[in-house]
Structure formats: C-alpha cells, structure tokens
Design goal:
heterodimer, A: 191 residues, Arc Repressor Mutant, subunit A, 3-stranded antiparallel β-sheet, 5% strand, elongated, B: 241 residues, alpha/beta, Rossmann fold, 6-stranded mixed β-sheet, globular
C-alpha cells in the first residue's frame, strides 16, 4: 500500500490538514490499514521536499497545518494510478517453499502439510467473511475484505492443485526430465 | 445445542464390476439448529454422496443417519419420503426448477405434494418469496428470471413450510461472485432463523460463510476448522503497510 500516493489522492480533492488526512485514509481503506500520525507527517514532509505538495508556510507543524497538491503532484498521482504494480516476478512465497521442501522429505506426509495450511487459510477466510457480513453498507471495507478473500482463495486453489498433482505423481511418477536451468530461473523455481 | 442432522459411522460402498469403491468411510458429523456446516473436498472425495445420504436420497452401506431426531434406518419408504418433503430442503447448482411452473408454483409444489390445499400452499409460497425479495417475481416462469433470481426461488422452495434441514450442493456454482454472495447471505439468514444447513463445495470463498468447515478426502473427514472465530483479531493485528 503506497501511503504516499494515497495521501496525494486525498489532497487532489482539495487542501486538507494532517489529522484530517489520517482519518480519511483510514475511512477510505475500511480501517483495514491503520496509520499512525507519525507516518502521515513523515510522508507529507517527503512529498513537500519532492515538490508534490505545498504547505501553509507560516503554520506551525502539527495537526492544524494545511497541505495542498501541486501540479507536479497531480501528474505523479495520475501516472501512479495507471502504472500496474510489479506482478511479473513471483514473490518468494514461504508457503510454496514449505510445500516444495516437504515433497522431498522422506518422513513427512506432504498431504498433511498441505491440509494444515489449507485449514489455516480457510479459518482466516472465515474471519474475513464474518467481517464482510458485519460491514453493512461500508463500501470501502467490503472492497478491502473482497481483495483479501480473493488473495487467500488463490492460496487455497494452489494448495488444492498441488495436492491433486502430488497425488497423481505418486500414482504414476513422471520420468525425471527437469526443465532447463534457464526456464527454472525465469519462473523463480529453485531446486 | 440440538443436532438436527446426525451421521454416525456412515459408510457407502459401490460395486464397480469386481471392484469395491468406498465413497464414504466411517463418517461422523452433526449439524445443529441455527448453524451452517460446509463440507469441502475435491471432485470424487465423497462430498456429494454425503449430501445425498444426509437427505435420505440414498441409503448408507453401514452406519446411522437421523434428521430432526428421526433415524432413517427401519423407516418405511413412505415415511422416508414424507420426512424428505417436510423436513429437508435441497438447493442444487443448476436450480432444478420446473420450467412449466411459475416461481410461486415451484415453491408451493412440495407443500401441495405433502397434502396442503392449493390455496394454503400458494399463500406460504408467496410468503417465502417475499422474504427473499421476490414477491414481484411470483408469477414469472424460470426462463423469465435471472440466474440469481432462479437460485433465490430454489432457496424459497427449500425453506418453505416447516423445514429443519437445508442441504446445498455447490449452490453458487452457476452464479457470478456478487450473486453467489447474495445466495450465501440468504442461506445464512435461513440458518439464523433456526434451520440447520450443510453445504458441500470445493470453493473456499463459499465455504468461508459457514460456521464450521470440515474437509473430506477419499471418503473420510480428515480435518475441520474450529468454531467460526470473530473478526476482531483481524482489525487489531493488521500492521500498517
């Protein structure tokens, strides 16, 4: 989550005070991402240093100091909104690593490992769904919870797929012909 | 709390030529009034067999099943049919509405089959449809309804009358995620009014609406989540990003 760009987005609606920015940030993200006042002021100072926002010169630093977005800041915001985040490189996912390790350990049932993680993720999803149930008409909270549920759902789907693939591989082991090192490096899979 | 559905050591074995296929193995499961249990498992894990046995649509090879305190074993065919009509409601992925009947007639049908007068069954059906915000769709035929509306009609048909147990097989499988969520909210509302529900699915988002999730693999229940936790910990433990 880019606090920097979220603050620029709030300031694009008009000048605001620091405390007001914090409250509006939390409300817009369904209070799923709490923010402390120190983070807000530190980010605002950096934005001012970079010429993306301006402040009331004569006001004392504190909750009543006002900020407004500059033309450069508005350009930065538009550019950020239309730039996809870096999803090309697979993250070093701890769960994936655990399953890949478990596959090769002789005394470990990899399906038990998969199930342990599946149960944990589904329990988390139950908590998020409960939160959505209670969210009522809070659109920001509902959208934030949906995002988390879809992310966790993809983890369960990967675990289900891994489970099935491992079961089939155990019944009919494929001939050992690993992909070339170049392909493995590109996909982020390491032996 | 009272269990509406009880399965004790339930097994189901099919013959496939000379082979025996164990669809279910010694399953213990209970669902209390007011609660929803989701059964999660991959295709072929036995979850649909579990649902059909719980709904008295199939008999187990071994073990005991009871609904609302009435054991299926030893029950005559007629008594079992009556129990199915009166106490158990079914929701399927493909809705299973009769195309030649209106929404209200589809909902009223199980009550009429159970001997209620057409007038009383019609009034109860309309009431059930209104509870699901479908009062103005009562006279429409299934092909005049959207997918989400058809599934809501199927839910009305499943809960109408004095049903105690709701059984659902991938009830949101044919719907987009928004309509699927609306259907799950309605099923949960029905539970909160006192029904017990068992939903079988391979979909984690769907299962996460349940109070408890049990996992089935190769005909056995292998694991389950704890009672549905509250969301408070999520709000206090989330770090700022």
């Amino acid at each position: 989550m880019s606090i920097r760009h979220a603050l620029l987005a709030l300031l694009s609606e008009g000048p605001k005070y620091g405390l007001q920015l914090r409250e509006e940030f939390e409300a817009r993200t369904g209070e799923v991402w709490p923010l402390n006042v120190g983070q807000v002021y530190q980010t605002l100072q950096r934005l001012e240093r970079d010429g993306l926002v301006e402040s009331d010169d004569d006001a004392e630093p504190g909750p009543q100091k006002g900020f407004r977005i500059t033309t450069t800041g508005a350009g930065e915001l538009t550019g950020w909104l239309h730039t996809p985040p870096d999803l090309a490189s697979p993250p070093r996912d701890e769960l994936v690593i655990k399953i890949l390790v478990a596959v090769h350990l002789p005394d470990v049932d990899v399906h038990d490992v998969v199930q342990t993680h599946r149960r944990y993720v589904v329990e988390l999803m139950q908590q998020w769904t409960r939160l959505k149930e209670e969210a009522g008409n809070d659109l920001a909270l509902t959208l934030a919870v949906d995002a988390e549920l879809f992310r966790l759902d993809s983890v369960v789907r990967w675990l289900d797929t891994a489970d099935g693939r491992l079961k089939r591989a155990a019944l009919a082991p494929p001939p050992s012909s690993p992909a070339t090192p170049q392909i493995r490096r590109r996909s982020g899979v390491r032996r | 709390m009272t269990s509406v559905l009880e399965l004790r050591q339930v097994s189901k074995t099919y013959r496939d030529g000379a082979d025996e296929v164990h669809a279910l193995r010694e399953v213990d499961l209970s669902v209390e009034a007011g609660k929803m249990v989701a059964v999660m498992g991959p295709s072929g894990s036995g979850k649909s067999t579990l649902l059909t046995i719980a709904g008295a649509l199939e008999t187990p090879t071994a073990g005991e099943v009871s609904v609302a305190g009435l054991a299926f074993a030893g029950m005559s065919r007629e008594d079992r049919s009556r129990l199915r009509r009166r106490a158990i409601g079914y929701v399927f992925q493909d809705f299973n509405l009769l195309p030649g009947l209106t929404a209200a007639e589809n909902v009223a049908l199980p009550l009429e089959l159970d001997g209620r007068s057409r007038r009383k069954a019609g009034a109860a059906a309309l009431d059930a449809l209104r509870q699901l915000d479908l009062g103005d769709r009562a006279d429409r035929f299934p092909d005049q309804l959207s997918g989400g509306e058809r599934q809501r009609v199927a839910i009305a048909r499943a809960v109408v009358g004095d049903r105690r147990l709701l059984l659902a097989d991938e009830p949101t499988g044919a719907l987009d995620s928004t309509n699927g969520e609306a259907v799950m909210r309605l099923l949960l509302d029905s539970c909160r009014r006192g029904l017990a529900a068992m939903v079988v699915t391979h979909d984690a988002q769907l299962a996460s609406w349940a109070d408890r999730v049990v996992f089935i693999r190769d005909g056995r229940i292998v694991d389950g989540t704890a009672a549905r936790p509250g969301p408070d910990s999520l709000l206090t433990e989330q770090p700022a990003r």
